[in-house]
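Deliverable D4.2, example record:
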Amino acid sequence: LAANKFRNYIKDYILVDQRLNDCKEQLQTKERELNEAKKEFAALNQILEQTHTALDFINDCMAYIYFSKSRLVLKESDKGYRLMSNGVDVKPGKVSVGERNIIGLCYYFANLFDHVKKEDWYKKEMLLIIDDPISSFDFDNKMGVLSFLRWQIDRVYNGNPKSKILIMSHDLMAIFDIQKMVSEITDKSMNNYIELVDKKASVRKSSFG
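Output generated by the structure prediction step:
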């Protein structure tokens, strides 16, 4: 009689022990899923933070070029981003070629810092290639873009002197302006430029300095 009684206790113990092991396995599975979810959440937050930082940078760049915080602004929306000009929504296709070029130039610099901490933006060695950044603008915007380029070239050069910047233009006066600007930033005389004529590159001497 006693043997049967303890046999039932042992069976109950085995069943409970098995259930406990099953619960432990389920708990471990849920903990792994929770850890994966936390990692994914952290990664999404990082992307969101970088997106906000990039958007702020682009708007800062456009404000720098236009000397105005409202002239052109990108805002977040449910469907992505919307463009505003002086506080009014405007379709990207309705802005001028010059305005689209300014947005593209600002986006280009923002894209350089993708997945890079803000404090390290200019520290890595970079090669920047900028095609005709100035010639399509009127005088005021040309001055704004030149001022913006000076700001960014100064940050790039002083962030890492090994970085290289190639700027191309068919506007000779723009090339002279950029040469003078770079000479002032680097404190080095840069009196030569490379001219492409009939598919041949020739070194030319500028008229200043």
